[in-house]
Write a structure and sequence with these properties.
The complex is a heterodimer of chains A (309) and B (355). The mean pLDDT of chain A is 90. In chain A, helix 2 runs antiparallel to helix 3, helix 2 runs parallel beside helix 4 and helix 2 packs across helix 10. Chain A starts with a helix and ends in a 20-residue tail after the last helix. Helix content of chain A is 71%, strand content 0%. Chain A is built from 12 helices and no strands. Chain A has one domain: ABC transporter involved in vitamin B12 uptake, BtuC (Orthogonal Bundle). With 355 residues, chain B is mainly alpha-helical. Chain B contains 13 helices and 2 strands; from the N terminus they run βαααααααααααααβ. In chain B, strands 1-2 form a two-stranded antiparallel ribbon. The longest helix of chain B has 30 residues. Chain B is globular, with a radius of gyration of 22 Å. The mean pLDDT of chain B is 89. The chains are: A mainly alpha (309), B mainly alpha (355). The interface between A and B is large, with 49 and 45 residues.
């Protein structure tokens, strides 16, 4: 294969992986604190629609992204209230979040279907780094949010493993009773992580509707939120592995897109099944090879009730 | 100082359950009303129009039942899995696969007479839905692979598969470009009630609900499912074969969702087409939960949600997006979950000791 095509494919991989990466990093943080949120798809959709609406009406992408952060965070807060304060079923609350998010975004976005964004989100090549052979065009000639996503991954890793905050978060997810005993406010930690998870999912959604495919379409996330949930398992709850996983899916997406454009003789229907089948395969292989949810926070999905200590 | 505390109830209270369900629906409509008002619609007018669209005439009522039938079947299907705490959220895909297989039978064996053809279509629909659920079931039973994600991913695959067929090899050459198969031979039609579209699938759904009721209440197997749902550890200790039960439950759960697909093509559309389900498989999750996983509850709630769908279709003429229905459904589920704490615990006033 021609090297320049290969480089272009890798660059497209990074961009396609970015919305999933934001969402997956957010979910990873949430799950680390012990809360399972299956509503990523819904939170992304709310982020995508709010980002789009605010950008169209203000003409400024940053207002759009800000609105997406707030919207995603509010969705996360609903999940936090139901699962932490009221100790409701985390699986069902996540499903409710997905259904509600799909409905709310479809409702609010109806008038914006097919409306084009006049002014695209600008690319911001990094000086010097952009000229490194191969690595430059693959990583350093994108928009600011691509860089932010990579910085966030490293930051998340650092916070989780090298700071006392990270220790509090991990202990809330591993053994909330012990965390409580040493004075960690488990409920507060879980609230913060669940809301932050929503914020990042909202950002991922807005990246989709503002940068990756600038437009609004009903249910435009097309399962990316669920892929992000699967990625967290694939990543064994480690942000650095999450980066690899997100780009793996980005790569498949970029490739199928190019194969269709190149007129390859596989039905586009079968190509569009690939990410979903890949998710199942990856999940299966990782779970079997690494002996059942290795690295899963021990208290993931279990409500913590102080009175039942 | 007085403070409200929640004290555990000895038994889940049925009355509290009904009150919580009713209040949840009511509050969801309040939330929907806020969104409607903010968008410049009159919430009250919209709801009145929805209500009339769903219950206002005998035709409206029959359409509500038409939409309730697939919800009953899919809802019963997922409820069985939920009882064992298996999160089968793949009813939508299982429904599509059921519709696909039943359509295959109808299209390629159409010359058969109805008494042969309909049972064959039922069997094919059940089998296809069951096989589609078997994949995540086996992965879960043998390797503990998260069934929520696998069942959901397979929804997308099934929907794309049906699209592939109706846009490609199975497309009716005379469809003027519409993504649908040729119309089935009349032997593949489910009988209908009088002049309405209410078809025999209703009887099927009620029979399955009755079987569920009896089996879950009186058989040892129903008891096994409850134990396995509470704790797989305890179930193994009690000599229950957990792997066998996971697979069996998912097969039946998927098969019944597959039947929902079969009755849609055989009773309503009479052909396979793009988007044969407006999300019945997802709505079924809420139906099952709101019906407290109880067969009778599910049948009743399915009618309510059938009405919501019909009402939602109706208000589209007033410019209100159909998404309002999904929004209301999601909100109902939130309030229901929030209210669940009152079913397990009751609020009491206690004197708070000063520290």
């Amino acid at each position: 294969m021609d090297l320049s095509i290969f480089i272009a494919l890798l660059a497209a991989t990074v961009v396609a992986g970015t919305p999933i990466l934001f969402a997956a990093i957010g979910e990873l943080l949430t799950e680390r604190s012990g809360i399972l949120n299956l509503g990523v798809e819904g939170m992304m959709l709310v982020g995508a629609v709010l980002g789009f609406i605010f950008t169209i009406n203000t003409g400024n992408h940053w207002y759009g992204f800000a609105a997406a952060l707030v919207g995603g965070g509010m969705m996360g807060a609903i999940h936090a209230f139901i699962t932490i304060t009221l100790r409701g079923n985390q699986v069902v609350s996540g499903l409710a979040l997905t259904i509600f998010g799909s409905g709310v975004s479809g409702f609010m976005g109806k008038a914006y279907q097919g409306v084009p964004i006049v002014d695209p989100f600008k690319h911001a090549p990094v000086p010097l780094l952009k000229d490194i052979p191969v690595l430059g065009p693959v990583l350093f000639r994108h928009d600011v949010l691509v860089y932010l996503s990579i910085v966030l991954v490293i930051l998340m890793w650092y916070v989780l493993y090298r700071t006392s905050w990270g220790l509090s978060i991990r202990s809330a997810g591993e053994n909330p009773a012990a965390a409580d005993a040493v004075g960690i406010n488990v409920a507060r930690v879980r609230y913060i992580c669940t809301i932050m998870g929503g914020v990042l999912a909202g950002l991922g959604g807005a990246y989709l509707s503002l940068a990756y495919a600038p437009s609004w379409q009903e249910d435009m996330t097309a399962g990316r939120g669920w892929i992000a949930v699967a990625l967290v398992i694939f990543a064994l709850w480690n942000p650095l592995r999450g980066l690899v996983g997100a780009y793996l899916f980005g790569g498949v997406e970029a490739m199928t897109f190019r194969m269709q454009a190149a007129g390859i003789k596989i039905s586009p229907f079968f190509l569009s099944m690939l990410p979903y089948i890949l998710t199942i395969l990856v999940l299966t292989i990782v779970t079997i090879r690494l002996r059942q949810e290795a690295g899963a926070p021990a208290a993931l999905g279990v409500p913590y009730d102080r009175e039942e200590r | 100082m007085l403070k409200i505390r929640l004290v555990k109830r000895e038994n889940e209270s049925l009355a509290a359950g009904i009150v919580v369900a009713a209040v949840s629906v009511l509050l969801a409509f309040v939330v929907g009303g806020i969104f409607l008002t903010l968008s410049g619609f009159s919430a009250l007018d919209t709801y009145i129009q929805m209500f009339e669209g769903a219950f206002g005439s005998s035709y409206a009522l029959s359409e509500t039942l038409v939409k309730a039938i697939p919800l009953m079947l899919a809802g019963l299907g997922v409820s069985l899995a939920f009882r064992m705490k298996l999160w089968n959220i793949g009813a939508e895909g299982q429904l599509y696969m059921g519709a696909f297989a039943a359509s295959g039978v109808a299209l390629f064996l159409g010359q058969l007479s109805a008494p042969v053809l309909i049972p064959l279509m039922l069997a094919a629909g059940f089998a296809a839905g069951a096989v589609w659920a078997l994949i995540p079931a086996a992965l879960r039973a043998y390797w503990q692979i998260n069934e929520t994600i696998t069942t959901l991913m397979l929804n997308y695959v099934a929907i794309i598969w049906v699209d592939y067929l109706v846009y490609g090899p199975w497309k009716d050459p005379n469809s003027l470009g519409f993504p649908l198969t040729p119309r089935f031979a009349s032997g593949a039609y489910l009988p209908v009630l009088g002049e309405t579209r209410v078809h025999a699938g209703l009887i099927l759904a009620i029979i399955i609900a009755l079987i569920f009721y009896v089996v879950l209440k009186y058989s040892r197997w129903g008891y096994e499912l409850r134990v396995a749902g509470e704790s797989q550890e305890a179930a193994r200790y009690a000599g229950i074969n957990v792997i066998k039960n996971i697979i069996l439950v998912m097969l039946i759960s998927g098969g019944i969702a597959g039947l929902a697909g079969m009755i849609e093509v055989s009773g309503i559309t009479h052909r396979l087409q793009h988007g044969i389900s407006p999300g019945y498989g997802y709505t079924a999750i809420i139906v099952a939960w709101l019906g407290r996983l109880h067969p009778v509850g599910i049948v009743l709630v399915a009618v309510l949600f059938g009405a919501l769908l019909v009402g939602g279709f109706g208000v589209q003429t007033a410019g209100i997006p159909f998404s309002i229905v999904l929004m209301l459904q999601g909100a109902v589920l939130f309030f229901l979950l929030a209210g669940e704490i009152f079913m397990q615990r009751r609020p009491v006033l206690v004197r708070k000791e000063d520290k």
